[in-house]
Design brief:
GO terms for molecular function: transferase activity. Helix content is about 35%, strand content about 20%. With about 350 residues, the chain is of the alpha/beta class.
Length: about 350
């Protein structure tokens, strides 16, 4: 369910200052464009880059992108700590009242924050995302992006969580991809920071906990964020234990006293979905490392794993027999074939 938001505008002021946080690992080839897109926005007062244990020239590439405005700060970790830890450190190192996350291989589109900040009655505000395949990046022209009416509206927790349950063999479109602007005072008031145990779903987890304590999460159809789709993206690879940690984060929220009704049921469904994926992956890992007998023993010791493991194996077999079941690419093999997180009324 999404609720319409009233359109309200006001002049720019000190409360419109944005800190852009970029956590980067081995992003020397892309971080310059990310930084430049952030520094190019008049609302951006700070850009904090965390070089999270890179082994390439990420820090050097970030320095080269500095525009001399003294808004860029670079912090380097010698040991990789993960995106959640890196972002929390950047939040602590910054002071702007608004916080915005930018992935090191993505970029902002011109005028992004003017659109997001046109309304004021929110705690988190996010816009549409255009997904661009890496192979078309060199020919990408921002003018080719579709224009959508802003149509501001608010997300509730059940809608947000439900839209983060992926459907196999369909193009991914989880709302956890959203990169909202967040009000620092709201995060501080509720003691909200990224869960540093997570290396998968850390955005989903933070937004869900924010909604659980009453965040007004506004979304607009206007497209202001460019996400580059790469086959070797770090976010596209995760360990089996990362799934367990995400399911455990859902479980911890369920065991708290902040959820009830539809919100509680939505988080319960998400926890079961992620837990099932974990069991399936753990079964396959155990089979690969210790053999089928050990994998079957794992299921016997964990009865709740039986159904998701059986379902996962069955679906894997179907995919092997019918490979055309996979996600269908855009029909047009041109740079104009852009994919959007939502192309109509947001989140519907």
């Amino acid at each position: 369910m999404v609720a319409k938001a009233k359109r309200k505008t006001s002049a720019n002021g000190p409360d419109d200052r944005v800190c852009v946080i970029i956590a980067a690992k081995n992003a020397a080839g892309t971080i310059g464009a990310a930084i430049s897109s952030a520094l190019g926005d008049v609302h951006v007062a700070e850009v904090v880059v965390i070089d999270d244990g890179s082994s390439d020239g990420t820090t050097h590439a970030a320095r080269v992108a500095d525009d001399g405005s003294e808004r860029l700060r670079i912090i380097r970790f010698d040991i990789n700590k993960g995106p959640a830890y890196a972002r929390n450190q950047a939040i602590s190192a910054s002071s702007s009242p608004l916080i915005s996350i930018l992935d090191a291989d993505d970029f902002f589109l011109p005028g992004r924050f003017s659109c997001l900040l046109a309304d004021k009655e929110w705690d988190l505000a996010a816009d549409n995302i255009v997904f661009i395949d890496q192979k078309w990046l060199s020919g990408f022209d921002a003018a080719s992006i579709k224009r959508f009416p802003a149509d501001p509206r608010f997300l509730d927790l059940p809608t947000f969580v439900a839209r983060n349950i992926s459907i196999r063999n369909r193009q991914r479109g989880e709302l956890g991809f959203l990169k909202p602007v967040m009000r620092r005072d709201f995060l501080d008031r509720h003691g909200l920071r990224y869960n540093e145990k997570l290396r998968l779903g850390e955005d989903y987890d933070l937004y869900t906990r924010a909604l659980a304590v009453g965040a007004r999460f506004q979304i607009i159809n206007n497209c202001g964020y460019g996400a580059v789709v790469r086959s070797d993206s770090l976010s596209g690879r995760h360990r089996t234990d990362d799934l367990k940690q995400l399911a455990d984060a859902d479980k911890a929220l369920l065991e708290s006293s902040v959820l009830s009704g539809e919100a509680r049921e939505a988080v319960r469904q998400h926890e079961r979905h992620i837990r099932g994926k974990y069991h399936h992956r753990q079964f396959l890992d155990t089979k690969s490392q210790q053999g089928i007998a050990a994998a079957m023993a794992y299921c016997l010791k964990n009865p709740s794993a039986l159904s998701p493991v059986a379902g996962g194996i069955f679906t894997d077999k179907l995919d092997g027999l019918f490979p055309q079941r996979g996600p269908k690419p855009d029909a047009s093999e041109t740079p104009a074939a852009l994919r959007y997180l939502f192309s109509g009324p947001a989140a519907e």
